Amino acid sequence: MKIGVVLPIAEHDVGQTFRYAEIRDYARQAEADGFDSIWVFDHLLFRFGDAPTKGIWEAWTVLTALAEATERVELGALVMCTAFRNPAVLAKMADTLDEISGGRLILGLGAGWHEPEFDAFGVPFDHKVDRFEEALRIIVPLLREGRVDFHGAHAWAHNGELRPRGPRPGGPPILIGAFGPRMVRLTARHADAWNTCWLGQPDGLASRRAELGAACAEVGRDPATLEVTVGVNVAFPGNGTDDDGARDPAKQLFGSAEEIAAALRGYADLGVGHVVCACSPEGAGSLARLAEAMAVYRELGAGE
């Protein structure tokens, strides 16, 4: 099982932002520590109720820079919102980034969910899943076959073609982050990998995976051909951010390196192909502790 880590590209408190040089150092440290992948969130801003707006760096720009800053780790997003970018252009961007990175991109895609950022940046929020499905009907054939001709209610591409092509003839693997019956069916129909998040202990995976299995049966796909990936929150005791005893194991992993390693092994035993860890708090200390847990997991032989 591969293990990845989310990079700190958003404000953790208003006005407290990791600069790009710090993000690059974090990514390079993750690569040096042996993580398999590094990930970013794709948002434009965060607004919840009356709380102050929190910001975030633009995901694709950061990911492209990190393709040059790193050499081995895979690069992904949980997940790129197809509504933020023209879908045909997004496919072109993905193939180009796959070229720059030497075939290390995992193209995570999703419909988006945080309405305030759509409104703030003038992006339509209506018919989200309809728009997402049409985006897939452009992105998937462009990446896999190099061409597309599609006209929908919300998106279209006439005689579209990708030239030149990146290092992989079928383009980068497509991962879809999906909740809800229709989104999961689209995942079963189009994706190479499915992502569900955010979990703690692996017990919570079973019900969500059952929904995926039902969707695969509905579209006639063998679920074994669809990689399962899971986003996992990892909180470290004693970080001073909250009461350790108040933590919910269904929503967070926490404890010693051995306890976190045991949970990672639990995911591997369930056939999960890739776990993406979001650390709390963000920073070098948490990354070092997660690397320790990953090393224990691998020493136990669970990574074989």
Determine the strand fraction and express it as a percent band: 15-25%
Q: Choose one word for the global shape.
A: globular
CATH homolog superfamily:
Luciferase-like domain
Q: Look at the helices and sheets and give the structural class.
A: alpha/beta
How does this structure look, described?
With 304 residues, this protein is of the alpha/beta class. It has one domain: Luciferase-like domain (TIM Barrel, Alpha-Beta Barrel), CATH 3.20.20.30. It has helices spanning 20-33, 59-69, 87-101, 115-120, 128-145, 181-190, 205-219, 257-269, 284-299; strands spanning 2-6, 37-40, 74-77, 80-81, 105-110, 147-151, 156-161, 174-177, 193-199, 227-235, 274-280. The strands form two sheets. The protein has an eight-stranded parallel β-barrel, surrounded by seven helices. A two-stranded antiparallel ribbon has the order 6-7. Helix 6 links the parallel strand 8 and strand 9. The longest helix has 18 residues, at 128-145. The model has no long low-confidence stretch (mean pLDDT 94).
